[in-house]
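This part of the workshop introduces the protein records we will be handling. An example says more than a description, so a record of this kind follows:
>
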Amino acid sequence: MTLMLSILNIRFMNIQKTISLIKSAGLTQSQIAKFVGCSAPNISDLANGVHGQVRPSSKVVDGLRKLLSEHGLQEILDP
């Protein structure tokens, strides 16, 4: 994936709503973090909208997309 495409993916995915949706499928923040390869506090910050301190990497965004797909959920994009 090119850098520009990664930046666009991060920009348009609504991270807070996406994590909430994944959690509604029964996963904990710790399970999400382990799957996407980051820390549980990082997922917590993203879920709570702490944007000034945490920016999701393309690896995290790709992992969230994979989790959505595996659970038959649709990605939530910013309007």
Q: What stands out?
A: The two ends are 23 Å apart (CA to CA). The chain has five helices and no strands. Residues 44 and 50 are 9 Å apart (CA to CA). The helical segments are 3-12, 15-24, 29-36, 40-47, 58-70.
